Amino acid sequence: MVIDFLKRTTAFNQLMFLTLLGLFGMGGMLSIVTVIFYSLGVDMTAISSAGNVAGADAFQIMLLKVLQITQSIGLFFIPYYAYVRFIKGNTYTILPESSRLSLGIVFFLGIVACFPLITFLAEWNAGLDFPIESINQWMHETEANAEKLIMLFLQMDDVGDLLFNIFLIALLPAVGEELLFRGAIQPLMVRMFGGRVHVAIWVTAFLFSFIHLQFLGFFPRFILGAMLGYAAHWTGSMWAPMLGHFANNALAVFLAFFIGVESLETDAEMFGSGMSWVYAIPSLLLASAMMLYLFRNKAEDPLNRQKETL
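User: That's the sequence. What structure does it adopt?
Assistant: Structure tokens below.
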């Protein structure tokens, strides 16, 4: 009966259900893993929050990484599974037809070309101050805590650490976040806004950036989220946005391993090397050309543009 209700109810109600399921899923998974850790005699007090990880040793950092993986499973994978298994809503395919696989490669290369532009936007965004001082202070504290945690994650001594971080920081978010945002939330937004795909893509991109709670990198992540959304809709699959998302995150990991953590910007998904608008302009042109190529080769209404009024 509950499943039948979920199938018939409005897109807004389905979105609220997936949101609550993600939160409960994340909390439940973290609780289970925490109980397991305690039962094994692991001291969790030193890593109970991001603000207490400055002196964490290698074992504690690994525990933090395990908790991060657990959180991603509960927050991203479980809601997407519920969407396709129980709600059975329209979505993009995970892999495209063989004749369209190359579009993912084009988008992958296009995202690489976007790095100077994303970096320029990140540096501009980081310099903004919110007019309300208390909120501005909270935003900077949140960013500092996130930076502290990701810098711990990016400490790598060997190839094994590199491969694990590629999985944790690049592959897992690329798959999990794209499944949820482009695979479930974006199609629901298309229905909620009566088939207005552009509105749905930008609203989803806003939520995608907001959920990271790193507001000093909000705008570049917002733009990136929109590009991922268009890539999903125009290619008809999540293959392209997953590759693009992976490229964006993996470069930071490779830079940290081969160049050093100090070369990275404070944002976990951006990298900084002093690039200016001189590099951002050709990057913008290349990114625009890539998006135009995807548009000219776009799939034919992959969601059938279902319409629903709230």
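The CA atoms of residues 34 and 74 lie 14 Å apart.
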